[in-house]
């Protein structure tokens, strides 16, 4: 069972551990990221950050069985590093009702759409395609924040140019 | 809801609260007391009282001070006698985050204060040693 899918450059970090995990009450966190999965050090550091009652899986994107995660009964938070990973996961069985944009860092060609989210045009297009397929896309760094939905993100992106 | 006051030297109190809010979102019923060099004790005392009054909703207040024996701690201790106030010394970020989440549990003020003291201490670890242990093969 997918409880939330979050795009966050930092994957497992303070906002996730201190705010989202208590809020969502999940039993499993899945980090689907090639870079994190390839480093024993990163895997160990991330697993240590999460309380032991919650299972942590850190796997390369292509090795995650998204269909199985979506079908079983375990409440799961899925963490992806970037927007570009989302269509792949979705195409491979990830149940995606809602996509949470947490932290997408500033970079060349990106524009600010919320305090912690900067998007490139290609990413905005990807998000729109997901929304057209029925996914609710919203920026929300922590649960206490009001979500900013895609139409507003698009508007802010246009104004930031 | 139990009120929280963070009282510390310099701008530590303000920055601790600001940082906690970056991590979990806005914190209700929280006030800060910055103690700048040269502030007369009378002014500090008045600021502390104002801060406590501002966040006291009837369930009491926990003051998180920086140094045991430091002025913020001493002035806080003076208030213990007359008000429903608990004082913790050695405030850190994990303690502040925990204080916020513990408020939604039905704890007495002293019990909450004691749990916070333990939590703050428990979260001081040698993180690199933990990482080494986590990477050790199981025997």
Automatic annotation (TrEMBL), chain A:
GO terms for biological process: phosphoenolpyruvate-dependent sugar phosphotransferase system. Gene3D superfamilies: Phosphotransferase system, sorbose subfamily IIB component (3.40.35.10). GO terms for cellular component: cytoplasm. This is PTS sorbose transporter subunit IIC. Residues 1-161 form the PTS EIIB type-4 domain. It is found in: Cytoplasm. Keywords: Cytoplasm, Kinase, Phosphotransferase system, Sugar transport, Transferase, Transport. It comes from the Bacteria. GO terms for molecular function: kinase activity; protein-N(PI)-phosphohistidine-sugar phosphotransferase activity. It comes from Corallococcus macrosporus DSM 14697. Pfam families: PTSIIB_sorb (PF03830). The keyword Transport applies.
From TrEMBL, chain B:
Keywords: Cytoplasm, Kinase, Phosphotransferase system, Sugar transport, Transferase, Transport. One of its GO terms (cellular component) is membrane. The keyword Kinase applies. Residues 1-124 form the PTS EIIA type-4 domain. It is found in: Cytoplasm. The keyword Kinase applies. Its main location: cytoplasm. GO terms for biological process: phosphoenolpyruvate-dependent sugar phosphotransferase system. One of its GO terms (molecular function) is kinase activity. It comes from the Bacteria. This is PTS mannose transporter subunit IID. It comes from Corallococcus macrosporus DSM 14697.
């Amino acid at each position: 069972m997918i409880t939330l899918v979050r795009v966050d450059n930092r994957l497992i970090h303070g906002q996730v551990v201190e705010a989202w995990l208590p809020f969502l009450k999940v039993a499993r966190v899945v980090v689907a990221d090639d870079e994190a999965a390839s480093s024993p050090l990163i895997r160990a550091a991330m697993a240590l950050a999460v309380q032991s009652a919650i299972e942590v899986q850190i796997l390369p994107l292509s090795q995650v069985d998204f269909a199985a995660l979506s079908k079983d009964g375990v409440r799961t938070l899925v963490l992806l590093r970037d927007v570009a990973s989302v269509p792949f996961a979705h195409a491979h069985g990830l149940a995606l009702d809602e996509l949470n944009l947490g932290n997408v860092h500033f970079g060349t060609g990106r524009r600010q759409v919320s305090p912690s989210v900067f998007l490139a045009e290609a990413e905005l297009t990807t998000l729109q395609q997901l929304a057209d397929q029925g996914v609710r896309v919203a920026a929300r760094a922590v649960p206490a924040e009001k979500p900013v939905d895609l139409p507003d993100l698009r508007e802010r992106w246009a104004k930031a140019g | 809801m139990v009120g929280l006051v963070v009282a510390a030297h310099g701008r530590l109190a303000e920055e601790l609260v600001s940082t906690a809010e970056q991590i979990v979102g806005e914190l209700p019923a929280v006030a800060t007391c910055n103690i700048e060099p040269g502030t007369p004790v009378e002014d500090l005392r008045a600021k502390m009282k104002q801060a406590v009054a501002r966040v006291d909703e009837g369930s009491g207040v926990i003051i998180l001070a920086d140094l045991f024996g430091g002025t913020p701690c001493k002035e806080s201790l003076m208030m213990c006698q007359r008000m429903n106030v608990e004082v913790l010394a050695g405030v850190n970020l994990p303690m502040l985050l925990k204080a916020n989440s513990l408020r939604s549990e039905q704890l007495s003020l002293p019990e909450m204060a004691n749990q916070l003291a333990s939590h703050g201490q428990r979260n001081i670890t040698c993180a690199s040693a933990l990482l080494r242990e986590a990477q050790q093969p199981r025997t």
